[in-house]
Amino acid sequence: MQAPDGIVRVRSKLDAWAHTIWDLLPNIVVALVVFTAFIVAAKLARKLVRRTLGRWSKNAEVNQLLATTVRFALVCAGLFVALGILELDKTVTSLLAGVGVVGLALGFAFKDIAANYMSGVIIAVRTPFELGELVELKGYFGTVHALDLRATILKIPSGELVTIPNQEIVLNPIVNFSRTGERRVELELGVSYGEDLDEVKQVALEAVGGLEERDESREAELYFSGFGDSSIDLIVRFWLRGVSQREFLAGRSAAVVAIKRAFDERQITIPFPIRTLTLDTTSRSILEAISSRRNHNGRARREPRAKE
């Protein structure tokens, strides 16, 4: 009895595949060995990269990302080499084309996410700030609370946490108040035009010179900055021992109290702002009528009642 045509076709196809596999068996073995070697090399390279980066980069997440990227690249290279050994050049070409198309689509879809991650890598390598440092980023002032590859988290003085994408940080100025270990207080004030400016300078510098918060190794400074509307303006500057925000506020507050007390003792006047108002005829008449009415009502209330 003769087998159906369908069964015959399946047998012939299986026989053809068996012969093809037998012929390619040496290549398959070599491809498996090469691919396994690439996998082992990828694991070793990952450990080596992570260990090497750990010597000069403190950001564990960046080190992990770069090490994983190296491992993935080696595994992909091993896969393409193994397919080439199996003479599957068309498959390799198709895979490369597919990877290119997928990568382009993902690049457009996750452009901002990728930019934030790359910015995180740049920040980790350059280290413009570290955890606990006092900084100003994108208009926000606070201490660095957390760092990752996507965003940086600040804790502002009022207690809230602000998350800033790393891309915004890289593209904008970064002010680090802690890195240099130096911070200065600047006070702007004014004195009356009738004061002796030499005496004003001496009294003000003596007042801030005795502050506990001041760095005694650096002299305090005073500069007269100009002629104001009702005062001669000046700037008092001195350096602090610490750079934290608490020390800055305490030093500035102590300087205000000390200068005010010293000026009062020497009878140096800090004038109030003076404003001159010019009224037209109508406004003057209205004010005079209001004043006259108030005076009349006041006299009427003060007059004693007539005796019956």
Descriptive notes:
The protein has 308 residues and is an alpha+beta fold. 57% of the residues lie in helices and 16% in strands. The protein has a five-stranded antiparallel beta sheet. A hairpin with a 3-residue loop joins strand 2 (140-147) and strand 3 (151-155). Helix 1 (5-56) packs antiparallel against helix 2 (60-85) and helix 6 packs across helix 7. The longest helix is centred in the first third of the chain and has 52 residues, at 5-56. The chain is elongated, with a radius of gyration of 40 Å.
* Topology as a string of helices (H) and strands (E): HHHHEEEEHEEHEEHH
| Largest sheet, strands/sense/barrel | 5 strands, antiparallel
Counting helices, strands and paired strands, the structural category is: alpha+beta
| Mean pLDDT, all residues | 82
Count of beta strands: 8
Q: DSSP helix count?
A: 8
* Main sheet strand line-up: 4-3-2-1-5
Stretches with pLDDT under 50, minimum 5 residues: none
The fraction of residues assigned to DSSP E strands is 15-25%
Helix content range: 55-70%
End-to-end Cα distance, whole Å, is 150 Å
- The dominant shape is elongated
Computed CA radius of gyration, to the nearest angstrom: 40 Å
